[in-house]
Design brief:
Blueprint: H1 5-16, H2 20-28, H3 36-50, H4 54-67, H5 72-84, H6 88-99, H7 106-118, H8 122-135, H9 140-153, H10 159-172, H11 183-191, H12 197-201, H13 205-209, H14 216-228, H15 254-259, H16 271-280, H17 285-289, H18 293-297, H19 304-316
Helix pairs in contact: 1-2, 1-3, 2-3, 3-4, 4-5, 5-6, 6-7, 7-8, 7-9, 8-9
Length: 327
């Protein structure tokens, strides 16, 4: 007897809503023999994955695929886990396995397209995204990524300008701790979550002086340090007056507080965006919301398209990125 589709969906709903013990009992009631074994293994893997045991989940999904190589859900989940672990070859193989089926999950095609783009296989990336748009012509993420792929065709690489960009990025990524500043100045910047030189260049004098215990002495010290490098505060900002700090702390949305504890794996993100979060060492939505847009944009190969994608996902949980000068 195979597992009823309704039963499988109800168990997955239990897992997704945190009713893990109830789901575990329901899974144990599924026969571990015959055709039911495959779905039981898959559900065991999904339960482990949602319990943050990625290694255990991967082993279950691999076991599913050894029995049923065409199992689409197992291939897709294993691809996501492999990608998060940095195993790009396994992730690519599993996404390609998903794409070989007649009915391909949209997220599988989009993630596969981004992996192809990162490898410079632009025609393959374009085909994947066009397949999504055939079925879902108004799919915003697919349209956005397709524009990115088409731009990559005409991208001109100049070795000198590339070297200059890399040198600039290396400077902007320098941690504040590397500079000779007083204890008070360093502590204030740390409390404001200004961690790199790039963060500092996106902060104005007004924002620094509006922070508690930050005075003219610390400001002049920082300005002098930047001047030695031919830099200045607010240099990286677009023209426009800074918003004054709020006099009263904003009310905290209880739903947003609950969402802050969720794992970032619960966001529907592309391969590129997930890798950026891995490089930052971010694991929860709360940690992500404490980062600034500047911090993400400073990551190699991370652009405005990926930033907008993450902002949209955070907004679904009532969260947003931290503004420079707030803590």
């Amino acid at each position: 007897m195979t597992t009823d589709t309704t039963t499988q969906e109800s168990i997955m709903t239990m897992i997704e809503t945190g009713r893990l013990e109830e789901a575990r009992s329901a899974i144990e009631a599924i026969p571990d023999t015959g055709d039911s074994r495959t779905e039981r293994l898959f559900l065991e893997g999904y339960l482990l994955e949602r319990s943050y045991d990625s290694a255990g989940a991967a082993r279950k999904y691999e076991e599913v695929l050894s029995v049923d190589p065409d199992h689409p859900e197992a291939a897709f989940r294993l691809a996501l886990i492999a990608d998060q672990a940095g195993d790009e070859e396994t992730a690519l193989s599993c996404f390609e396995r998903c794409a070989s089926r007649e009915e391909v999950p949209v997220h599988a095609l989009i993630n596969l397209a981004l992996m192809y783009e990162e490898r410079g296989q632009l025609e393959r990336a374009e085909r994947c995204l066009n397949e999504v748009l055939k079925v879902h012509p108004n799919h915003e993420r697919a349209k956005r990524f397709l524009r990115s792929v088409k731009c990559s065709y005409t991208m001109f690489y100049d070795e000198q300008s590339q070297w200059e960009r890399e040198r600039r990025d290396a400077v902007l990524d320098m941690p504040i701790a590397d500079f000779e500043l007083s204890v008070r100045a360093r502590n204030c910047l740390k409390q404001m979550n200004i961690r790199t030189l790039g963060d500092l260049l996106k902060t104005t004098e007004y924002e620094l002086l509006s922070y508690r215990n930050f005075g003219e002495t610390s400001l002049n010290e920082i300005k002098a340090m930047l001047a030695q490098k031919g830099l200045r505060l607010g240099q990286a900002l677009q023209a426009g007056p800074p918003s004054p700090p709020a006099a009263i702390a904003p009310r905290v949305n209880p739903e947003a507080m609950a969402a802050a504890n969720k794992h970032v794996s619960e966001l529907e993100l592309s391969v590129r965006s997930r890798k950026a979060l891995q490089r930052l060492g971010v694991t929860t939505l709360g940690e992500l919301a404490m980062r600034t847009e500047a911090e993400l944009l400073s990551i190699k190969n991370f652009g405005q398209t990926s930033l907008n994608e993450i902002k949209e996902q955070l907004a679904k949980f009532g969260l947003s990125f931290r503004k420079p000068g707030t803590s």
